[in-house]
Amino acid sequence: MSGDSGPHLPLTAAQGLRYGMLGLPLAFVALPLYVILPNHYAREFGVPLATLGAVLLGARLFDALIDPLIGRITDRLFARSVRAVLAWCAAACVVLGLGFALLFFPFTREPGPLVAWASAVLVITYAAYSALSVAHQAWGAMLGGDEAQRSRIVSWREGLGLAGVLLASVMPALAGLGWTTALFMLALLCGWLALTTAPRPITAAQHTVFDLWLPFRRPAFRRLLAVFVLNGIASAIPATLVLFFVQDRLQAPPSMEPAFLGSYFLFAALSIPLWLQLVKRLGLARSWLCGMALSMLVFIWATQLGAGDTVAFLAVCALSGLALGTDLALPGAMLAGIIAEAGDRGQSEGAYFGWWNFATKLNLALAAGLALPLLGLFGYLPGARDTGALNALTVAYCLLPCLLKLMAALALYLLVIRPAQRLHSDNKNSESGITHHAS
Prior knowledge:
Elements (H helix, E strand, L loop, with lengths): L12 H8 L2 H22 L4 H32 L1 H23 L6 H32 L4 H49 L23 H31 L7 H26 L1 H19 L7 H32 L7 H29 L9 H52 L1
Helix pairs in contact: 1-6, 2-6, 2-7, 3-4, 3-5, 3-11, 4-5, 4-6, 5-11, 6-8, 6-10, 7-10, 7-11, 7-12, 8-9, 8-10, 9-10, 9-12
């Protein structure tokens, strides 16, 4: 099988494209599964929000729990050969494509059997998605490099992922779910073929000991993961509720939904090169902090919107998309740096990204499993127009994410930026002392 042997630094555009291409279908599938599916089952099949929240919570929690195990399997496959990883990815692509189709085209519409069907297929589909995404992330982290290089590697993956999200945001409305499914399957095939010719990472020796809990013995990983979880929940809640907000709070026509979602992800993609320039000046952590601040300002503004404010909400989508660029490109690059600094590169990326994806899935599970039932508890139902229900929707969509994002920003400063400042200061003082002693 053709492909470059070993990492290439700096990564060329062609190499970045071949590695990052699989990010397109992985992101393509995420938007229908996490944003469109809850709304689709509630409105098309009449599944109650509480039931839907329970199904999504259960499936996502199970998916999150198996991610660390998938990470360990991934490390073993990388230690065996890159060819074994590619075979694993091919199998995951087949299962993921079939699972996606079966979710949106179920064999039954009866409430009871439909809920059981969705639960089973969600578990299988999520597992395949996890297997593919952990392998892809670990592959990129093994390519190594400095902060700028790591951010470029992640940016190729996430930038092409945003192209996938843009396609997913417009395809259901423009061409229907059938053509959306066909395009997704084609993108999966192209992504896997591109990966077979991507730069090859340097992998571990056969005798490597695979330790599932190794990442948690690294204090830097624990601190970064805490920030990532808080920030992830803050982002997952509006992602789960955006279509409800658009349809009921803004009362926007269905034809506007692709424009809202498309502008959000388009501006996220356009923002990545700008954030990479800021990384060169401020570093990864401080640039991420700037993105969090922008996101909070935008969602505070969104609380003032009401029926008919579609143009203003387009601006909200564009500006929050700019902030999203940091969430996509920077945390993964920071994690790759932690792996390298701990001396674990080339042998434990699967374990790290297994737990990383566990946190991601936990965020999404909590967002669906808590936000949807709470909205129902406070009187909101799809199609509601009374003031109390719409205010509850606004608080859940706008203010709750702001509170969580503020907590994430404080954690980033106190747990990541401050310790790095102290370490840098201690190193300078130590170097100054050595220089003074030598003189």
